[in-house]
Design a protein that fits this description.
This protein starts with a strand and ends in an 18-residue tail after the last strand. The chain is globular and about 65 Å long. The strands form 4 sheets. It has a 6-stranded mixed β-sheet with strand order 11-12-13-10-4-14. A 6-stranded antiparallel barrel has the order 15-18-17-16-19-20. The longest helix is centred in the first third of the chain and has 11 residues. It is built from 8 helices and 20 strands. It is an alpha+beta fold. Helix 2 packs across helix 7.
Length: 365
């Protein structure tokens, strides 16, 4: 049986189209994916992301343990800072990608919905030689993402918090009308925005407070389009148990430490190079849209496959990402779309270059 988030009734009242996703009934769209995607880039939207998993790690060895299992370096984090990382397996592949929140008395991990139990079990298995306490809090927490250029003024007006002090990939714990909340300047859209975490019993109240004024609801369809326009990976597409973070173009989130899972492969790939690489591409031809698992060709030879593809409303063209052999250096590729070979031009990521997100030039990731 599918689970429901605390906001399920809100989605039904807003006439959302509901679909199964990662074991949940989730809204894929309200007014339409194209409208919601454009509105997120121009104004602001609210996403229900309560299906995401939340895992807490405490204990004397919490930092040592996290450093062992993730690609990044959590020792760089200050209190309330957030870090993106890949959860590594022993072969240097990707168990998941996640956010690490360093809070004063604990680490708070936010993981992909479809991987929550897998990640929790993996962390418990890997922690046997560490003095840590690991809790799966996913069923206790509701999460909302407010994303778009107007996100900060909207939330400042409602929550009456000084959010200008919360920089990109930083967070704060506070109270709103006596309700404890964790709020961070993070998101999966490439726009400025915030994510709010509350206990589930306060979910309805927080939604009613935030869902005012110009804000509109957006579903999974728009969220996926927005992340693809930014070239962000999605687990199960660009990342999986066999793919390393280096192959996925995430080198800046890989830090070589004294001891970490998959070290042998990561070191080897850093020295000798990777076998496949992730590229972005687009079509100038109207209506030509790449889709997952379609084959990629160059000079008549198959060189890779599509991992994600969609129509970009903000660029008005079909865009995609995919893996090709690491020695490929061409400027265009060809994709077999339902028996027709279509040309795509390779481009640097992200596809959408200008957004409302202002990232400091120097930041610890």
């Amino acid at each position: 049986m599918l689970k429901r988030t605390p906001f399920y009734d809100k989605h039904i009242k807003l006439n959302a189209k509901m679909v199964p996703f990662a074991g949940f009934e989730m809204p894929v769209q309200y007014e339409g994916i194209i409208k919601e995607t454009i509105y997120a880039r121009e104004k602001l939207v609210i996403f229900d992301v309560s299906h995401m998993g939340e895992i807490e790690i405490k204990g004397k060895d919490a930092l040592k343990f996290l450093s062992y299992v993730v690609s990044n370096d959590p020792s760089l984090l200050k209190d309330y800072q957030v870090q993106y990382a890949v959860l590594l397996n022993e072969n240097g592949g990707s168990v998941d990608d996640l956010l690490i929140y360093k809070l004063p008395d604990r680490y708070f991990l936010v993981v992909n919905a479809a991987n929550t139990l897998k990640d929790y079990d993996f962390l418990c298995e890997m922690s046997k030689n560490f003095d840590v306490e690991i809790k799966n809090l996913s069923d206790e927490i509701a999460q909302l993402a407010i994303q778009g250029p107007l996100a900060e003024p909207h939330l400042v007006n409602i929550l009456e918090l000084n959010l200008s002090n919360v920089k990109f990939y930083w967070s704060m714990e506070t109270k709103y009308k006596d309700i404890p909340i964790l709020i961070s300047r993070t998101g999966y859209t490439g726009e400025d925005g915030f994510e709010i975490y509350v206990r589930k019993e306060y979910a309805d109240f927080i939604w009613n407070e935030v869902f005012k004024g110009d804000i509109k609801p957006a579903g999974l369809g728009a969220r996926d389009t927005l992340r693809l326009e930014m070239g962000y990976p999605l687990y199960g597409h660009e990342l999986d148990d066999d793919t390393s973070p280096l192959e996925a173009g995430l080198k800046r989130f890989v830090k070589v430490k004294e001891n970490f899972l998959g070290k042998e492969r990561i070191i080897k790939e850093l020295k000798e190079g990777i076998k496949k690489k992730l590229i972005g591409f687009y079509s100038e031809e109207k209506g030509v849209i790449p889709r997952e698992k379609m084959k990629i060709f160059s000079d008549g030879e198959e060189i890779g496959y599509v991992t994600s593809g969609t129509f970009s409303p903000n660029l008005n063209k079909g865009i995609g990402m995919g893996y090709v052999r690491s020695d490929f250096e061409g400027e265009k590729i060809y994709i077999d779309i339902r028996g027709k070979i279509k040309e795509f031009k390779i481009t640097s990521l992200p596809f959408v270059k200008e957004t409302s997100l202002k990232i400091p030039k120097k930041r610890k990731e």
